[in-house]
Specification:
The complex is a heterodimer of chains A (about 110) and B (about 120).
Chain A (H helix, E strand, L loop, with lengths): L4 E2 L3 E3 L5 E6 L9 E5 L6 E4 L13 E6 L2 E6 L8 E8 L6 E3 L3 E5 L1
Parallel strand pairs in A: 2-10
Antiparallel strand pairs in A: 1-3, 3-7, 4-5, 4-8, 6-7, 8-9, 8-10
Chain B lengths: L2 E4 L3 E3 L5 E8 L7 E7 L5 E8 L5 E3 L8 E5 L4 E6 L8 E8 L6 E4 L3 E5 L2
Parallel strand pairs in B: 2-11
Antiparallel strand pairs in B: 1-3, 3-8, 4-5, 4-9, 5-6, 7-8, 9-10, 9-11
Classes of the chains: A mainly beta (about 110), B mainly beta (about 120).
């Protein structure tokens, strides 16, 4: 099996920028995705293929990739962005997937 | 409109069997993979594996291989997740999701099925 590591939880004030990172060896050659999960709700994809934003996701959500690390950036954080964020990465073959351990964003 | 509607909450005893379902609509079932994701109470998401609607090709995470069985019934556009012998550690919420893999990830999700295993 393979490991997907996420940065620890982050706390920011409204209007600030939050960054969450995710690393896995396969991400150097494969794309990953980011999900937001609010309490009691199913997850929602907020970034796919490293940098793409689905329709309906606010522009303040962006993704980037460098080497084997993905970064989710939320610019101008709003109170409603408080949630758990998970990255999802494949193995080197792209066949099997795993989630990172999750990062809780707290908006102060 | 794409929808994945999962079966309701289950309360079972250890040793019993269980099969939960995920009925999809709004897209061609046989053209997509369905993933199953476990979330234990207060914990993170775990990708259990995925099954292809068209031919039942299945990929299990090594952590779940042999522990669960995924299946589909294309005639009713439904995916299933089943256990032969439940354990208390199977207590969790189970989500199904349309799995587009590298293309766009898990783009549509069911509402989740809570499973409680208790004697």
């Amino acid at each position: 099996s393979f490991e997907v590591k996420q940065s620890p939880s982050v706390s920011v004030s409204p209007g600030q920028t939050a960054r969450i990172t995710c690393s896995s060896d396969a991400l150097a050659k494969q794309n990953g995705h980011w999900y937001q999960q609010k309490p009691g709700q199913a997850p929602v994809v907020v970034i796919y293929r490293d940098t793409e934003r689905p329709s309906g996701i606010p522009e303040r959500f962006s993704g980037s990739s460098s080497g084997s690390t993905l970064t989710l950036t939320i610019s101008g954080v709003r109170p409603e962005d408080e949630a758990d964020y998970y990255c999802q990465a494949p193995d080197i073959s792209g066949t099997y997937w795993a989630f990172g351990g999750g990062s809780r964003l707290t908006v102060l | 409109e794409v929808q994945l509607v999962q079966s309701g909450a289950e309360v079972k005893q250890p040793g019993e069997s269980l099969k939960i379902s995920c009925k999809v609509s709004g897209y061609i079932f046989r053209n997509h993979w369905i993933a199953w994701v476990r979330q234990m109470p207060g914990k993170g998401l775990e990708w259990m594996g995925a099954i292809y609607g068209g031919d039942s090709d299945t990929r299990y995470s090594p952590s779940f291989e042999g522990q669960v069985t995924m299946s589909v019934d294309e005639s009713v556009s439904t995916a299933y997740l089943q256990w032969r012998t439940l354990k208390a550690s199977d207590s969790a919420k189970y989500y199904c999701a349309r799995d587009t893999g590298r293309r766009a990830g898990l783009d549509y999700w069911g509402q989740g099925t809570p499973v409680i295993i208790s004697s």
